[in-house]
Amino acid sequence: MTSSPTATPKQLFTVLLAGSLVLLVVHTLGRFIYTPLLPYLVADNQFSAPDGAAVATWNYLGYLMGAMLAIRWHRIDQIRFMLPLFLAVHVLTTLIMTQTDNLTVISTTRWLNGVANGVVFVQAPALILEWLVLRNRATMSGLVYIGVGAGLLVSSGLVSGTADFLEGAQRWWPAALVSIPLAWWGVMQLRKLDVPVREHDDSGQAITNTPLIDRASIPLFLSYAGAGLGYILPMTFLPLLAKIELPDGHFLQDGTWMLVALFTIPAPWLWNKLGAIMGDLPALRLNFIIQLAGVLAAVLWPGAIGLVLCAVLVGGTFLGTVLLTQRIGRALHPHQGPRLSAAMVALYGFTQMVGPWLTKQWLDSGGTLVSAFGIGVAALVFGLVFAFFVPRPDLWHSRP
């Protein structure tokens, strides 16, 4: 038997930092910076609130398609080629956003940016997880998502810090300029990772593909679908809701997104730790309950109290849902690796695309934005219910 390769603390730090920066670039400077930008772009008359919801839907459609591409091209050699390619696509599409006020061009560009986000958001963590598994350090995998939390804070600062002297398409310049060096350094580090190209299981045996869908994974997929639809409404529309509900100049108009960012930063470490202490599956169920309470607060207490509770509780949980579900999925099907991660992100991406689309239909039919958050409440209840039908991985593998 060959011994597992080892990793020094410096190597672990470098790999996790590189993954964090790559996710910061595509998932916050690509996707979530749109959330604090949206009220300003609407106020600049670049487009209306319903059009803004439609633009978000195009971005999420691209994310879904990117994740599906990652299912098809999941081998390590393919990941090494696609990561730099789609990070370049992210940079290019963000630069295009600085140059146009045309709604069709904006929608098309945000769709393509979503494709890049979907590919990279699957492939970077999956590559890092495989590298960590080979070194018996899989429990550290959730730390890569700290980049998303830090990126929310960065995106909030970039938007609010430049709000007074940028307008319309110019508001995308900070995201574009910050993305370039971070994307380049991060992907250069990840391309160096020593991960075997062939498919293998945790014991090193060559494997063949088996079905992704079975009695163990179906409830997990359904639960994850509920999570995707449940969290995306506050993560897309919370600052816009604050602008609608609060008087002009209220500190929470920008402060809600800042709260989300602040509570997202420690969330990967917290849920990584809770998963290790109480088990990933019980931690996931607790995560759903807390996240549900956050979205419900925005519905039950319109105004400052509901906005703050939503920002804090959703910001502190949604990344935990991602890392815990990914780990549970791999524990149920350890041979699937990046394919399983890509399938989950594709499903997550589909439900995230549905959320803004449903919101647009609701607003166009005369509904209010706060009542649209009820869609998120129902989705999280759905996800929580199915989380109780997911089997424990050890019991699943010990069945006769």
TrEMBL record:
The chain crosses the membrane at residues 12-34, 54-74, 81-99, 111-134, 143-166, 172-190, 221-242, 254-271, 283-300, 306-325, 337-358, 370-390. This is MFS transporter. SUPFAM superfamilies: MFS general substrate transporter. PROSITE patterns: SUGAR_TRANSPORT_2 (PS00217). It is a multi-pass membrane protein. Keywords: Membrane, Transmembrane, Transmembrane helix. One of its GO terms (molecular function) is transmembrane transporter activity. Its main location: membrane. The keyword Membrane applies. It is found in: Membrane. It comes from the Bacteria. GO terms for cellular component: plasma membrane.
